[in-house]
Amino acid sequence: MTHFLHEFFYPRTVAVIGATDKPTKPGRAIMENLAGFTGEVFPVNPKHTELFGRRCYPSITDIPGTVDLAVIALPVIAVEAAFAEIVMKKIQRLIMITSGFAEAGEEGKRLQERLRQAAIKYGIRIIGPNSLGVFNTKNGFTSFFVSPERIMKPQPGNLSIISQSGAIAVIMMEAMARNGIGIAKAINYGNRVDVDEADALDYLTEDDQTSAVVMYIESVGDGRKFLQTAKKFASRKPLIVWKAGKQEMGASAVASHTATLAGRYALYEAAIRQSGAVEAYSFEHALDAAKVVSLLHHTCVGNRLLIVTNGGGMAVAAADAAAREGFVMPPVPEGVREVLRRSFPAFFVLNNPIDITGSGSDDDYYRALTEALPHYDAAVVIVLTGTTTVTEKSAEIIARACKELRKPVATCMLQGMRYAEDVEKSVQKLGIPAFPSPERAVRALAVLRRSGCTLK
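and the corresponding structure tokens:
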């Protein structure tokens, strides 16, 4: 049986109520973003006969044939009249961009409740209000009203985003795009008058394009429903959950943002842990976690960590982080040391961390990894690119070792100004995540160990 959210992501015909050519209006950005949509788009605005090369209709009831999905991008005072026309047109799926509902005070709460009751009465499923709706790289459909000229869109990928905040959804997507990480789908449900975080997670559990989810929540609509759905998802795919509103001031901000109560953080913390999901503790942590579950395809089955570096100080920082994240760092086995001693200079340090010093080359990294990594569960590789003995080929060599040994590896590229950035981009294109500090690399690998699964 097809999930009810499928038609939100894969409509054949879409009506944009409030479409316009005014640069400052959401209706324009939505129309511009739908330029690559494979389905049919019907702009609705009585002030226009044509918009963006498409016939514009005065009312949604004037559109011929069936409309699978409507997007309302109107001022709040015009929403109820538009909803009445949606009922007349017998449209069953609605995305509400409009704000000014429960988050805006008592009158807004009453309006939102009237909308909820009417949706139930007529069998209309709603995302929103106060939301961006959905984003789907598979068919180019999106109701996001962000300017295509100002926001970098991600390429198709296997990571999906669920966010209670529209701003967080867009910022995450752009951050992923800047890191070369592709996106499958994204959904921002806003005030969740109907569709909530558990519905979105339930849909993505069976979605073939989604191999992992990163989720931002301020609260949940139904705790039991969320826990059951999160358990189901996390048993199959990695799930990263960033819960905001942990402290009193943050909880107060939640109430004014989406008109919900943040709830006691301890309960959320326990539920996330019980579900098998991995909790992210900040925006940065969520992005790093998303990167590692998106790129790495090998399970971290234990807690034995290897560190290979050409700079001892950064390795010490990584070792401290490893202890905090529950890793252990057994010494390199004596048999492996014997093999490496035959190839390496006497001043290379062959403990754990393995330090090939500033004299180490690309091939030395490969030799250290291929000999030692089979005895560990994961590795952090630190490359100081300011040394003249390391080249851009180090990215290819590290990626080759990771794939040959089928072990998860995270990297940290430092020094060398733009050279380090180029090597970092190269290694990520080869499917190995790179991070700006050894601590973040270690913490990201810990996500794989805690989730117990990786992308398939």
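(Above: one complete record from the training split.) The chain has a mean pLDDT of 91.
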